[in-house]
């Protein structure tokens, strides 16, 4: 027998899943709002624009997924089951002859779905997102360094990339007169 074969099970599962998605979204928004200033500082400090900042912000969102999902399953499941109890849905289902195991089957199905989602995000999506984030930041740093070295600018840039320190100096005594690299 399928765990969510009945209409009542699917209805209760949809209610639980809706609450879980809502809680995950709220946790992600709070996490991303907390990370926003650091990401803006890093991206804009390396010569990026708002699109790069939004890309890096989007790429950092899988970091919190596992924690948010576990918390959301507990909170969303609790509120959905309490709402079903307070609205007397579980009593009506019991009176109609539906087994008391319905909430247990719904909770187990939610746990199985959360396991698969967590495995997919933490095993595939998060490593790819972290790599893409490092790639974007490295690209911004290298473009900034290259533009400071080759183009005229005011100020000095000292940057360390992979253990090597580069310095682009703005000095009139250096040949060529606009920049030099040490």
Please write out the topology.
Elements: H1 7-45, H2 50-60, H3 65-86, H4 89-95, H5 102-150, E1 157-161, E2 164-169, E3 180-181
Helix pairs in contact: 1-2, 1-3, 1-5, 2-5, 3-5
Discrete helix count: 5
Rounded to an integer, what's the Rg over CA atoms? 26 Å
Order of helices and strands: HHHHHEEE
Taking strands numbered 1, 2, ... along the chain, how are they ordered across the largest sheet? 1-2-3
Name the quaternary structure: single chain
Low-confidence stretches: 177-182
What general outline do the C-alpha atoms trace?
A: rod-shaped
Q: Average the pLDDT over all residues and give the rounded result.
A: 83
Largest sheet: 3 strands, antiparallel
Distance between the termini: 72 Å
**Beta-strand percent range:** 5-15%
Count the beta strands.
3
Structural class: mainly alpha
Helix content: over 70%
Would you write up a description of this structure?
A hairpin with a 2-residue loop joins β1 and β2. The chain contains five helices and three strands. A three-stranded antiparallel β-sheet has the order 1-2-3, with helices on one face. The chain is rod-shaped, with a radius of gyration of 26 Å. It is mostly helical and 182 residues long.
